Amino acid sequence: MTIPYPTIADCVGNTPLVRLQRLPGQTSNTLLVKLEGNNPAGSVKDRPALSMIARAEARGAIAPGDILIEATSGNTGIALAMAAAIKGYRMILIMPDNSSAERKAAMTAYGAELILVSKEEGMEGARDLALLMQSQGRGKVLDQFGNGDNPEAHYQGTGPEIWQQTGGTITHFVSSMGTTGTIMGVSRYLKEQNPEVQIIGLQPMEGAAIPGIRRWPEEYLPRIFQSERVDRVVDMSQAEAEEVMRRMAREEGIFCGVSSGGAVAAALRLSQEVENAVIVAIICDRGDRYLSTGVYDAR
């Protein structure tokens, strides 16, 4: 008898959805968080990373041995480095040099080549360089910001999982917005099941630096983003996101990153406005890839 053992790629998705016990306080609402840090490379980006490579292969756009290029602020880069290692691609990642040491180390551990741009150039500069390198024939850009295979991963996976795990009772979905792939794909799926489900997106306040999410200038707004799929956008301060992140670890035993703290902070705000709601927030990644930044230092 041949046992169908899974590969590491088969372990992406089907992440737990758990209830917050202390942070919500006395409320008629149920606050749930989806633990995307349980994916093999540690974040929600494992889903679109595998999706973009596998679907590009299926279309014949890439083949093993090709060089792939991507601009990233961290999690997508780690996920793509893992997916490239699984699939047999050389991966070049371009990112701002102020990203955490853990993120850089994880990418190179998977065998990716890392190119850094300055903090001032930021993600916009990283994206521009990726396209320049592609125009010079140095590789193929996957383009998480404009690639429909990014939200499709969440339409096919994350959205259905949330619907099934809540038994179709979800009333509100809260997600940080970076590439916007998660919120686009999940919104599309949930709205098809129940148009009354409210979709809340999170962006940093002006001047706030929350890893993984952005307040994009109009000319760099991800092409996959469709504003009509988001019912409400919440501006989040860095201080509030970091404070709730630390409270998640200390009061709920959930060790997560800053953008996840922001998503939960937004869910807690929302919980003050509604009753008898089922609110689901995405926990994008784990907190261990932020330790060197000092955000978890005792205070």
TrEMBL record:
Single annotated GO MF: cysteine synthase activity
Keywords: Amino-acid biosynthesis, Cysteine biosynthesis, Pyridoxal phosphate, Transferase
Pathway where this protein functions: Amino-acid biosynthesis; L-cysteine biosynthesis; L-cysteine from L-serine: step 2/2
Enzymatic class: transferase
Organism: Stutzerimonas tarimensis
Catalyzed reactions: O-acetyl-L-serine + hydrogen sulfide = L-cysteine + acetate
Needed cofactors: pyridoxal 5'-phosphate
Keyword Transferase set for record: yes
Catalytic activity, EC: 2.5.1.47
Name of the protein this chain belongs to: Cysteine synthase
Gene: cysM
Domain Tryptophan synthase beta chain-like PALP, chain residue ranges per copy: 9-285
Entry keyword DNA repair: no
Family, as annotated: Belongs to the cysteine synthase/cystathionine beta-synthase family.
Domain of life: Bacteria
